[in-house]
Write a structure and sequence with these properties.
The protein is of the alpha+beta class. It has helices spanning about 50-65, 65-70, 85-95, 120, 160-180, 200-210, and strands spanning about 20-25, 30, 40-45, 75-80, 110-115, 135-140, 150-155, 190-195, 215-220, 220-225. The termini are far apart. The protein binds benzoic acid. The site of benzoic acid (BEZ) has 8 residues, from helix 1.
Length: about 230
């Protein structure tokens, strides 16, 4: 039988208040949540500086930083590397690495140097069966009330899809603003799902009145509408 190498890892889950922390980063000292009031935060970990998959991820994420800023979202990176290693790696990325047409990319978001693993452990980013010396590829989506709204965990060998990270953020913001849900493979601008009715009466009304309200129902429990965006 395979040995179970996993000591129990504490991991915040959806709905938890995100653990608070202070950390030294490539952009100075940060305090969470104090420095991020009223903002969405994407806190993500990578296994190590100067590794190929992580390099492609950083170039991609840094190239999208303005798109996330426009969505009221700040990015924070983390790995179990020193401040000096982070600085040297980010300089190398800017000066030497081109990936998919992206070059001279400056990483302006803070990257935590978590040599003590204090922050990584609070967020369950160390998963000993995968590695006990580096963080897995975790992504925490934290809302402006400091609640964990979604999380992703990828193994060391697979780079993340940053379009999906953006899509998920926009979906959650759309859900919060309009009290709707978003269907499979939804893309911003596409029709959204109206919450299902809570009683038999409202189910009947829903189907009968749907067309008048511009709601398209496939059946009483699955109705779509187009959002009127400003
Ligand atoms: C990488 O980023 O390339 C990587 C990091 C750790 C393990 C495997 C790949």
């Amino acid at each position: 039988m395979e040995q179970n190498c996993c000591e129990k890892t504490h991991m915040p889950v959806i709905g938890d208040v995100a653990p608070s922390f202070e950390a030294d980063t490539t952009q100075g000292h940060i305090k969470f949540p104090e420095d991020y009031e009223g903002k969405w935060v994407i806190l993500f970990s990578h296994p190590a500086d100067f590794t190929p998959v992580c390099t492609t991820e950083f170039i991609t994420f840094a190239s999208m930083e303005k798109e996330f800023a426009a969505l009221n979202c700040k990015l924070i990176g983390l790995s179990i590397d020193s401040h000096y290693s982070h600085i040297a790696w980010l300089r190398t990325i800017k000066e030497k690495i081109e990936y998919k047409g992206m070059k001279n990319v400056e990483v302006n978001f803070p990257v935590i140097a978590d040599l003590t693993m204090d922050v990584a452990k609070k967020f369950g980013m160390i998963q000993p069966c995968e590695s006990n010396v580096s963080a897995v590829r975790a992504v925490f989506f934290i809302d402006p009330k400091a609640k964990v709204r979604a999380l992703m965990y990828y193994p060391l060998s697979t780079g993340r899809n940053f379009q999906e990270i953006k899509r998920l953020l926009i979906s959650m913001q759309t859900v919060d603003t309009h009290n709707v849900a978003t269907p499979a493979d939804w893309q911003p601008g596409e029709d959204v799902i109206v919450p299902p009715p809570g009683s038999c009466g409202t189910a009947k009304e829903r189907v009968e009145g749907a067309q008048k309200e511009g709601i398209k129902c496939l059946d009483w429990f699955i109705c779509f509408k187009t959002l009127k965006l400003k």
